[in-house]
Amino acid sequence: MNTVSLDPWIEGYLDYQLTVRRLAPRSVVDVRCTLKRLVREMAVSHPDVPLWKLSLNDYLEWVNRQRERDYSVHSINKDLSHVRGLLEYAWRSGHAQRNVLDGFSLQDALHREVPKSLSLEQARQLVEACPAHTRQQRRDRLVILLLYGCGLRTMELRQLDVVDVDQERQEIVVRHGKGDRSRRLPVPAGVWTPLLAWLAEQRGRRGALLRTAQKQRRLAAKDICEIVRAAATRAGLAAWVTPKALRHSFATHLMDRGVDLAVIASLMGHRSPQETGVYLHRLPGRREQAVSLLSKRGGQNL
Fold it and tell me: Which of 2, 130, 162, 211 is the most exposed place for a label (fewest CB within 10 A)?
């Protein structure tokens, strides 16, 4: 086996662990071994790409190869911890835009409870169960479309204002996401048309995008839940169909269509891949290899 020389910057990171953080020498040796093994392997599949420039999918491929070699979950998570420390250091020192492994762990990804979601046919039934004859019906239909078509959280939806709809870019600006993080969401055509029609009905009104019919106040979370519950009842769907289930369906259906995990995380407003990893169960017959779902080899899905 050829000797691997680590990048001088990685050597600096290891020295930092030893002299500044005062990590035990044996622990630094373990980290060095993990990084050397990773560098050696990535030199074949991703030559001349430093570890802190690799994508989440690149690391998912690596994890999948570890699993194929019968590495234990504990061993893989230990390696991930070593690499995650390097990536965190790279991010904090400005060498990387983010730590793509932040919060990610194989065990968590495999054993978190699978969220409930609708099938594509059930989603179609739900939308079709929402007529658009009256103003209130059009509002309720838009609530369903925004929850399912944009993956919004209930609180994100109720806090939307008219000015948050960017008509030039066909996007919605979520200004108060979880953790007070903002993001921009592209709006699919099937949602954009009724959204524009709804804006036209507002006739220049400012403030809340969605209001109650009588007092014209901003919709509350319980109002949105009731709208979804009523639509599910009309569609003959189960009582578990909630706003959260529509958000889960948004992510699940994107996963089914092969959308990159990092893109889904961005659209969902997740802080780390760990949150999005719960959707890795989706491809039929591959739950035991959930982490490998987005991995590719030779241009074909494993």
Answer: 2
Q: How many of the other CB atoms lie within 10 Å of CB of 217?
A: 11
Residue 137 token pair: 């019906």
Q: Which two tokens stand for residue 97?
A: 């835009």
Structural domain boundaries of the chain? 8-111, 120-249
CATH number of 8-111: 1.10.150.130
- Are 59 and 101 spatial neighbours (Cβ–Cβ below 8 Å)? yes
Task: Name the amino acid, one letter, at 296.
Answer: K
The hierarchical CATH code for the domain 120-249 is: 1.10.443.10
Give Cα 248 distance to the centre of its chain: 10
Adjacent-strand bridge partners of 173: 184
pTM: 0.59
Which among 62, 63, 60, 50 is positioned nearest to 96, based on CA atoms?
A: 50
Q: What is the CA radius of gyration of the chain?
A: 23
- In three state form, how does the secondary structure of 202-259 look? HCCCCCECCECCCCCCECCHHHHHHHHHHHHHHCCCCCCCCHHHHHHHHHHHHHHCCC
Closest listed residue to residue 280, CA positions, set 254, 244, 247: 254
Q: What are the pLDDT digits (tens) for 226-274?
A: 999 999 999 999 888 999 999 999 998 998 888 887 888 889 888 766 6
Report the alpha-carbon distance of residue 147 to residue 277 in Å, rounded.
20
Residues ≥6 apart with Cβ < 8 Å to 4: 36, 39, 40, 43
The closest alpha carbon to 52, from 1, 6, 109, 110, belongs to 6
Same fold, 8-111 and 120-249: no
